[in-house]
Write a structure and sequence with these properties.
Elements (H helix, E strand, L loop, with lengths): L4 H13 L31 E3 L11 E4 L2 E2 L6 E4 L4 E11 L1 E6 L18 E2 L9 E2 L1 H8 L2 E4 L6 E8 L5 E15 L2 E14 L3 E5 L5 E5 H17 L1
Length: about 230
């Protein structure tokens, strides 16, 4: 029996739609942008050999850096608004696919509104060959910012730009990385980081581990005033 192209396309669409909140990994980018969970599904979840967990525990030694400082899921980071920041994903071993998803925060219980993050994640000049804005799955479908891969070839580093224009607390940055999805093996990792968008006035230092610390400028001013006061007393 002959099946028309239209009928075949409809059958495929129904199959994909029936997958529960699935993100079917595609060679040209993530196909969905869920919040608070790994952006994998479909072919990944059906594999008999699955490896998953936080980025830092993956054998590829994956890490996310903001302005060169390693982010930790346990440590919220203050991000000054209105300026570009470099967001980077690195691995000691190659990975193939990824998705950055920046949520708008907001908490009904605290009467805080979500901010618009749809333009917060961008591609830097010269990096368009390895990363792109997730225009459909994140920006259009979820109304959040997103960056994803453009191919499934091995890579050890990708960079994007982060620029938040409004103050907000506890913005979730979900990061999913696909190391391998081939044969019976599915190897992926996921972590969520927390960003606080603040109005300037922060100075960043880096300790020996590469983890950035921020010292509020008001604290520096207060310390300077205290030192001046002490000099008058001596």
């Amino acid at each position: 029996m002959m099946i028309s192209t239209r009928t075949f396309g409809l059958v495929v669409a129904i199959i994909f739609a029936s997958l529960p909140n699935a993100v079917v990994a595609l060679p040209t980018g993530a196909s969905a942008c869920p919040a608070g969970e790994a952006a994998v599904g479909g072919s990944h979840l059906g594999k008999s050999e699955q490896t998953n967990g936080p980025l830092s525990e993956n054998a590829a030694q994956l890490k996310v850096l903001l302005n060169g400082n390693v982010l930790s899921p346990d440590t919220p980071v203050d991000v000054p608004i209105g300026v570009d920041h470099t967001l980077e994903l690195m691995g000691e071993a190659p990975f193939r696919g990824f998705l950055f998803r920046l949520g708008g925060g907001g908490n009904a219980g605290n009467n805080t509104l979500a901010i618009d993050t749809t333009e917060a994640l961008r591609v830097a000049d010269g990096d368009a060959g390895s990363i792109k804005v997730a225009k459909t799955v994140c920006v259009a479908n979820e109304n959040v910012g997103g960056l994803t891969h453009i191919d499934n070839v091995d890579k050890t580093s990708v960079k994007g730009l982060l620029k938040i224009t409004e103050e907000a607390g506890s913005l979730p940055l979900d990061v999913t990385v696909v190391v391998r999805n081939q044969g019976t093996v599915s190897d992926y990792a996921y972590s969520q980081f927390t960003l606080n968008a603040v109005e300037g006035g922060a100075m960043e230092t880096t300790n020996g581990s590469g983890i950035g610390k921020r010292t509020p400028m008001m604290g520096l001013v207060a310390a300077s005033v205290a030192m001046c006061s002490m000099s008058f007393l001596l």
